[in-house]
From TrEMBL:
Protein name (Swiss-Prot/TrEMBL): prephenate dehydratase
Record InterPro entries: ACT-like_dom_sf, ACT_dom, Chor_mutase/pphenate_deHydtase, Preph_deHydtase, Preph_deHydtase_CS
Top EC category: lyase
Superkingdom assignment: Bacteria
Keywords: Amino-acid biosynthesis, Aromatic amino acid biosynthesis, Lyase, Phenylalanine biosynthesis
GO CC list: cytoplasm
Catalytic activity: prephenate + H(+) = 3-phenylpyruvate + CO2 + H2O
Phylogenetic lineage: Bacteria, Pseudomonadati, Pseudomonadota, Alphaproteobacteria, Rhodobacterales
Organism this protein belongs to: Paracoccus kondratievae
One example GO MF annotation: prephenate dehydratase activity
Entries under Pfam families matching the protein: PDT
């Protein structure tokens, strides 16, 4: 693949029809979506030049953060340039001509099976564990058995020629996944989101110095400067209990005086500080905040 081609390619983890693929279509519809086997492969596709951008899921409103992704982001060498929130709408997909009453088994990733317990129970459908959502749709299309359906995105049904027997069957109607769009080059410019909103988000990781109350002191600058911290998560580094790294999202741009003062104070109490990206807040971020209140 030539460099001219990769300038319009966005990589994602999973098979065609995965929810990450859906995110690519929604947020970068003009780009060609490149499926990758793992998150590491997705990141490497951008680092090597096979793709211009990467679409990576970082957290889900029902199941929390995506495993391992926070370990990968700081070491990836990539930069966050945008975010997106995708509503997880689950469909029951089967081979064309199938009636709902014929379905006895539904295949999907364990997470999606857990999100549709009510529907499956009402229709006496047994859940079957598959490798992933889009892969399950692919397998159902390959087998061609009316008794076997898949739980996946409507996009997966479109790609693999399956019929949608039921839609929106998830137990929680507000289930949403947050994605980060990452690039080889950072973009610290102030820019509006798709609806003209000008709120910026800054994401960074840091490790505190080994002194008493270091985390408390490090975060004090955000409170005293009135900077809203929307996310703070900790995780071990290299499997060592005493080596803790923190991931944080704040509202604002590093050049905003309150943010600059808060980051300066944070830097004093940390042994490392790495800004992962500065990007416009997605319009759906406010909707998610309101739903949580």
């Amino acid at each position: 693949m030539t460099q001219a081609t990769t300038q319009n390619v966005i990589a994602f983890q999973g098979e065609p029809g995965a929810y990450s693929h859906q995110a690519c279509r929604h947020y970068r519809p003009q780009m060609e979506a490149l499926p990758c086997r793992t998150f590491e492969d997705t990141i490497e596709a951008v680092r090597s030049g096979r793709a211009e951008l990467a679409m990576l899921p970082v957290e889900n409103s029902t199941y929390g953060r995506v495993a391992d992704i926070h370990h990968l982001l700081p070491e990836s060498g990539l930069h966050i340039i945008d975010e997106g929130f995708v509503r997880v709408q689950i469909s029951l997909l089967a081979v064309p001509g199938t009636k709902l009453a014929q379905v006895t088994d539904a295949m999907s990733h364990p997470v999606l099976l857990g999100q549709c317990r009510g529907f499956l129970r009402r229709h006496s459908i047994h859940g079957v564990v598959g490798a992933d959502t889009a892969g399950s749709a692919h397998e159902v299309a390959r087998r061609g058995e009316p008794s076997l359906a898949a739980l996946a995105s409507p996009l997966a049904g479109e790609i693999y020629g399956l019929e949608e027997l039921a839609s929106g069957i998830e137990d929680r109607q507000n289930n949403t996944t947050r994605f980060l769009i990452m690039s080889r080059s950072p973009d610290f410019s102030r820019r509006a989101n798709s609806q003209g909103g000008t709120t910026m988000v800054t994401s960074f990781v840091f490790r505190v110095r080994n002194i008493p109350a270091a985390l408390y002191k490090a975060l004090g600058g955000f409170a005293t400067n009135g900077v809203n911290m929307t996310k703070l998560e900790s995780y071990m580094v290299d499997g060592i209990f005493t080596a803790t790294q923190f991931y944080a999202d704040i509202e604002g741009h590093p050049e905003d005086p309150p943010v600059a003062r808060a980051l300066e104070e944070l830097d004093y109490f940390t042994s490392s500080l790495n800004i992962l990206g500065v990007y416009p807040a997605d319009p759906l971020r406010a909707t998610q905040t309101q739903a949580a209140e």
